[in-house]
Amino acid sequence: MIDSRLLTLRTFASCGTVSTTAELTGYSPSAVSAQLRELQRSLDMQLLVKDGRGLRLTAAGRYLVKRSDTLIAEWESIKAAALRAGDQTPTHFGMGGFSTAASNLLAPLAAHVKRERPGVQVHVLEASPARCLDLLVAERIDLAVVVASQAEVDVDGDPRFEQISLLNDPLDVIVPADHAVAGNGPVTLEELSGEEWITDVPGTPYHDLFTAAFSALGLTPRVSHEAAEWDTSTALVEAGLGIGLVPRLASLEGARNVVRVRIAGQRRPTRKIVAAVRSGSAGSPLITESLAYLRATAQEILASRLDDES
Amino acid sequence: MIDSRLLTLRTFASCGTVSTTAELTGYSPSAVSAQLRELQRSLDMQLLVKDGRGLRLTAAGRYLVKRSDTLIAEWESIKAAALRAGDQTPTHFGMGGFSTAASNLLAPLAAHVKRERPGVQVHVLEASPARCLDLLVAERIDLAVVVASQAEVDVDGDPRFEQISLLNDPLDVIVPADHAVAGNGPVTLEELSGEEWITDVPGTPYHDLFTAAFSALGLTPRVSHEAAEWDTSTALVEAGLGIGLVPRLASLEGARNVVRVRIAGQRRPTRKIVAAVRSGSAGSPLITESLAYLRATAQEILASRLDDES
DNA sequence: TCGATCATGCAGCCATTATGCATGAATGTC
DNA sequence: GACATTCATGCATAATGGCTGCATGATCGA
């Protein structure tokens, strides 16, 4: 409902060049250039000035971008309240999340919504946290479940999003069943720093989490193997080629001869899993309902962990 | 900046049928129908329901229209603040007003702006109060000077506008120089109820004002002649064909052998002249400046009247 | 000075959107 | 009760607007 040219300006503000804006938005550079020119013309305002071979926002442009967040949030809030005022529910509802979230949290949620609201077409989409947020902004989905630290943008501070904490998902070590620490109580990463590790290829969200876990302790693990999916890395562990870190949420169904060992210590690595919605949209009936359901599901997961530990 | 389809919905909300919306917006009925359908599709919301052979807004639709006023006002306010933040002034500035306002208030203002801001292209447009407000909403002009009672819409109560009172413009009687009341002090309309009157054709803003002045006193004047412009009616008065009412602001330059006589009484007819801007836009540099100038001009006019009366 | 990296303008193309007429439904009228 | 009106809407056609791809000019680094 808000003019797309303003959204283009927002993208430009966050990346700084016309070409990159074009890549991010999917337009051609000429289109972005034309849009920005047209925006300035129709607003009768100078938003950009030449700066070397690039462009720079003027004070007016910066201000416009800053306030546009609140404008968009208000629009979302109006939409949500209109649905409530008319006692309506949307016919389409999209949610996105990364792999483990999709299976553990979104799948039950989607089933719940389909059951409670048979008229609603529910759409689940699995994608990386960063991509989920992009899709959220682009209104391709209405709800995202992401790992706060893997989102590239600061979900908490970004005015485009509202964040709802769901649960802290600690990382466990998976080792072969005959490993020295198998069956023990919690171990520290220091104890395992000499091991050969299996992780994902650099540049992936999980790899970043992996290295962050060690560098927080001043350690640099020896990485012997790289695997993209849990099943693969589990197989590598089974084969005795090394050990790995897996989030508690990742089930190891079907994995034989490996053991999950908890990590001890104050600074043990965890993923903070949060739900994110477009600012202002939290009041929309389906979203309010979904967030409540997600919170409940997260509580159940936490409760079942306590049972395990007792 | 706000999607045009939402503006179309607003127009529909105020007039109630697709055909009239088409007339008011300049679209064809099919276009309006398609826009409303598309709006509902993209919002995934039912805004309209069939009602007889027409359409009716749903609760959600009514709510959306109501809140869209605040959204548009916020956007105006953002634009205004962005201009201030960047210390910019628009290059175009449009103002509209009805005849006497245009000459007495807008002409000096336009001259003032041109003098103070040589870079600004000032555009003055003379139109009826009702049309001025339409042009204001359509962003064809940025400032309107209207008669509050002639605007068809309630300028004060309409959230689309902000109103600034300028002055009360009383109506005087113009009579031939040899008329019985010429040169007297104030007269009452009752005294003149037997006269033959000259006014505008029915349906015009001035005619409405004319009849309102009499019906407020329970009188029905005898209308002998109808003239669209002050010059014409003045000529008719000069010719001894009747007498008329003219606002104080209307100068009678060039009129010979006619006399302006003030009207006495508590309920003497006046026009309330106000400046109107789009809600939120009052903070824009040119508008702030212009409103101050208009207020000052109005004060000068009032002051010169006091001088006359002393 | 050369090459790389920008933004921008222009010709051509495609998609979105409006138009005009025909249709169907609902209402009031004689 | 038949007819004329007044609505909204759908479809085929036409036009407008917006995007792409390439060429150009400007700026900066080597």
Structural commentary:
The structure is a homodimer of 310-residue chains. Chain A has 310 residues and is α/β, with parallel strands linked by helices. Chain A has three domains: 4-70, Arc Repressor Mutant, subunit A; 92-164 and 275-309, D-Maltodextrin-Binding Protein, domain 2 (3-Layer(aba) Sandwich); 168-271, Periplasmic binding protein-like II (D-Maltodextrin-Binding Protein, domain 2), CATH 3.40.190. Chain A is built from nine helices and eleven strands. In chain A, strand 3 (92-97), helix 5 and strand 4 (121-126) form a beta-alpha-beta unit. The A-B interface holds A 1-3, 6, 42-46, 58-64, 67-68, 70-71, 74-75, 78-79, 81-83, 85-88, 90-92 and B 1-3, 6, 43-46, 58-64, 67-68, 70-71, 74-75, 78-79, 81-83, 85-88, 90-92. The first copy, chain A, binds a DNA duplex (30 and 30 nucleotides) through helix 3. Chains A, B: Residues 1-58 form the HTH lysR-type domain. Chains A, B: Keywords: DNA-binding, Transcription, Transcription regulation.
Please give a handful of descriptors for the protein shown.
homodimer, about 300 residues, alpha/beta, Arc Repressor Mutant, subunit A, D-Maltodextrin-Binding Protein, domain 2, 3 domains, two-stranded antiparallel ribbon, 9 helices, about 45% helix, about 20% strand, globular, DNA-binding
